[in-house]
Amino acid sequence: MKASLAIAAVSLTGALMATSAAWSQEVTVGQREFSNNCAVCHGASGKGDGPLAGSLNQTVANLTVLSKNNGGVFPVARMYEVIDGRAVIAAHGTRDMPAWGYEYNSQADTNMLGYYYTGPDVDAFVRGRVLALIEYISTLQEK
To answer: Where are the alpha helices (H) located in 25-116, listed in sequence order?
Structure first.
């Protein structure tokens, strides 16, 4: 009986340690934004190999070569315009496509859980989400 209890305790401890390790892996805001809004087309690695990429009429951009294709400099301003909807990208559809700036603006009050309701606060919240996404995409760049 004691041996069974000891085995069960060791098994439970191992399971708790594995669960704790999984919980301790941090997911950044930008990584979450990418997974929710971009990976379906661009793929988890950003190489343009997402699950929907094959069903689109245009080739999905490989986001890992943005710096390489821009003389070694990550194009922050251009990325901001693409994400917030100011730059029209044919593959992204209209500027109201939910994955882009319109989605951030329309959901800002909901995502902020009612803590902030004024224009500047919503704008700051949206800007923070866009910048977090850009920062994450910058980490995907080929070396």
So the answer is: 29-37, 39-42, 76-84, 101-111
> What is the C-alpha to C-alpha distance for residues 113 and 43, in angstroms, rounded to an integer?
29
Contact 68, 141 (CB under 8 A): yes
Please report which helix (H) or strand (E) contains residue 49, including its range.
none
Distance CA 104, CA 127 (A): 9
- pTM listed for this prediction: 0.68
User: In 3D, which of 110, 106, 128 has the Cα closest to residue 33?
Assistant: 128
pLDDT band at 62 (very low <50, low <70, confident <90, very high): very high
Q: Residue 109: how many CB atoms within 10 A of its CB? A: 15
